[in-house]
Design brief:
This protein is about 70% helix and about 0% strand. The protein contains 9 helices and no strands. The N terminus is likely disordered.
Length: about 240
């Protein structure tokens, strides 16, 4: 079997549309997260129950609206993961094991992008509940956001394997350097799991290594990946024409 062929043609325009769909949803998610939910950066983990409750009481309407919007669009990785799998399939022989694993990881990780805005919305939903309950919901939301790295690794490892082992293909969006870049991204992203341990410092849930670096690197990886996909699709379409 030719390692750079697929069993059936896949529309180039449809793949582009899915990438733009994912990027548009990501943009809306970030706007809602930053300007409506207003938890960038996350408040210190040392906040008392009364401080947390006061935040949701003061920003309840904005947080609830942000939760509506962010939870609608938080599955932005699903269409992007599908296009990545289509492009990985071109490079695999036989059953597309790595492409399938990548798509499963991309879909499952989306759940943990949906849960935090849902939980922030719940925290803001009843402002007069006991402050300790609001604190519990708030902690669950924040830790779900920064520590749930379990499914990201399947996506990153699958992409890295195909990038580093597939035969050279000038039309592939996954050159060898991209495999190393994805491995580095995965390593830096896994630091988020340390958010369970300290309440202050660079490994706290709002710290450099748990919040800022993973968030920045993840956004950069999505942009780089999208650029590589767009460039590969342009080349593939030119050759097929």
């Amino acid at each position: 079997m030719n390692p750079v062929s697929t069993d059936m043609p896949v529309s180039y325009s449809a793949q582009r549309a899915l990438i733009w769909w994912a990027l548009s949803l990501l943009l809306v998610f970030m706007v809602a997260f930053v300007f409506l939910i207003r938890l960038v950066p996350l408040p210190p983990a040392t906040w008392t129950a009364d401080q947390v409750a006061a935040f949701y009481q003061a920003n309840g309407g904005s947080v609830r609206l942000g939760a509506v919007i962010a939870s609608w669009v938080a599955g932005f990785m699903v269409p992007l993961a599908l296009v990545i799998s289509v492009q990985m399939r071109r490079l695999e022989q036989g059953w597309p094991l790595w492409a399938t694993l990548q798509f499963a990881g991309g879909c499952l990780m989306s759940m943990f992008l949906v849960f935090p805005p849902l939980l922030w919305g719940v925290a803001a939903f009843t402002p007069d509940r006991p402050a300790e309950i609001t604190l519990l919901i708030h902690e669950l939301a924040n830790l779900t956001l920064v520590t749930t790295d379990q499914y990201f690794i399947f996506q990153f490892v699958a992409i890295a394997v195909v990038s580093l082992t597939a035969k050279h293909d000038e039309m592939s969006p996954f050159p060898r350097w991209f495999g190393y870049y994805t491995i580095w991204t995965a390593f830096m992203f896994e630091l988020g799991a340390f958010g369970f341990i300290p309440r202050t410092g660079p490994f706290a849930w709002n710290g450099l290594f748990v919040f800022w670096i993973p968030l920045s690197i993840f956004l950069l990886w999505i942009l780089v990946t999208s650029f590589m996909l767009f460039r590969a699709l342009k080349r593939q379409e030119a050759v097929s024409a």
